[in-house]
Amino acid sequence: EGRETRLRVVLRVRPLTCTETRRGDQRVVHSLGDGAVHVSAARHDATFGFSAVFDAGASQEAVFEGSGMRQLVELAMDGFSCTVFAFGQTGSGKTYTLMGPLAQSDTQPASPALLGLMQRSFTCLLEQSRSRGSDLALSASYLEIYNEQIRDLLSPGPPCSLPLRWSKTRGFYVENQLSVEFESLEAIVSLLLQGSQRRRTSAHALNRHSSRSHALLTIHVRSRAHHPPTWVLQAGACPSKQGTLCFVDLAGSERVKETGSSGELSLEANSINRSLLALGHCISLLAKPRGKRAHIPYRDSKLTRLLARSLGGSGITLMVACVSPSSRCLSETLSTLHYASRARRVTTRP
Ligand code: ADP
Ligand code: MG
């Protein structure tokens, strides 16, 4: 508590897809063990280090256990603001890592072994809350940032844009966002599904179900106060603690040329790229030592405003960088690896 803590950055390399294998793409990303990963291709030869590296054979469970996700859930229950975000090129496996293949087929439920970090965290959260026997109130909110507008994915009816405000006590926050209480795994999974179906996706060349928005699902964990004596309240003490666990599925970085986007799609791509650029800029400034830091331009995008606390404030953050092993994705993969390495130097004060 209060001590400078580094962002935890892990890397996941997905298997080659059928299309990539059929095309005869070479694998250029290899795990060396101990958190090291090697990229080898003509004119490029580099090694990067992370807190953990998961290669093509890693199961969803291995990623949950090895990434530190379980500890993050426990910290959220202890009252900290925790965030996990998936970052990487379109089609690199971000949504798969967070939600599993379930997000992509609405007819067949995914097999339990394939469930992603989110469902595993929900299970862990509900189990813990039962075993601790404390009176915890759980609620969820789910937002997307689409073309620099914030939309509530849980409120019924046509999407409308919500204002983003700032206050001294709360920092940046979204006004009027819906927060839905839940007590069971079925309830939270169904909120996740409903919300995900409202997300803006569109098909383009790299990924049939590409997410065109950044999505943030936040679980609020509040311990209910046990009717404190009135003098406690009068003294201004806060008898309950509140933690959060936020899952961020970033829309992929992409080149308009590679994905064949045009018209409305390229407007989307530009807003996505602009906010990812702003995020990259904040991360490289935050990676400098505290004394030498310039002003951090969180206000450059809605995404960076919403992530301000996770990146530079009092949050605890896990970043899961996702890459494809294919030679065809080499330049995007290298840029994700550089970006993720830089993020390892970012610190917060939980
Ligand atoms: P993103 O969200 O980064 O755009 P997706 O998560 O949608 O990418 O993944 C792209 C494709 O690759 C999907 O068809 C997904 O099922 C598949 N995929 C991604 N990661 C894995 C993995 N670890 N194992 C098997 N298939 C994967
Ligand atoms: Mg996705």
UniProtKB/TrEMBL annotation:
Family matches, as SUPFAM superfamilies: P-loop containing nucleoside triphosphate hydrolases
CDD domains listed in its UniProt record: KISc
All residue ranges annotated as the Kinesin motor domain in the record: 6-346
Compartments it resides in: Cytoplasm, Cytoskeleton
MF annotations from Gene Ontology: ATP binding; microtubule binding; microtubule motor activity
InterPro entries: Kinesin-like_fam, Kinesin_motor_CS, Kinesin_motor_dom, Kinesin_motor_dom_sf, P-loop_NTPase
Entry GO terms, CC: microtubule; microtubule associated complex
Binding sites annotated in the UniProt record for ATP: 88-95
Highest taxon, organism lineage: Eukaryota
Protein name (Swiss-Prot/TrEMBL): Kinesin-like protein
Keywords: ATP-binding, Cytoplasm, Cytoskeleton, Microtubule, Motor protein, Nucleotide-binding
PANTHER family linked: CHROMOSOME-ASSOCIATED KINESIN KIF4A-RELATED, KINESIN-LIKE PROTEIN
Organism classification: Eukaryota, Metazoa, Chordata, Craniata, Vertebrata
Biological-process GO terms, alphabetical: microtubule-based movement; mitotic spindle organization; spindle elongation
Similarity section: Belongs to the TRAFAC class myosin-kinesin ATPase superfamily. Kinesin family.
Name of the encoding gene: Kif12
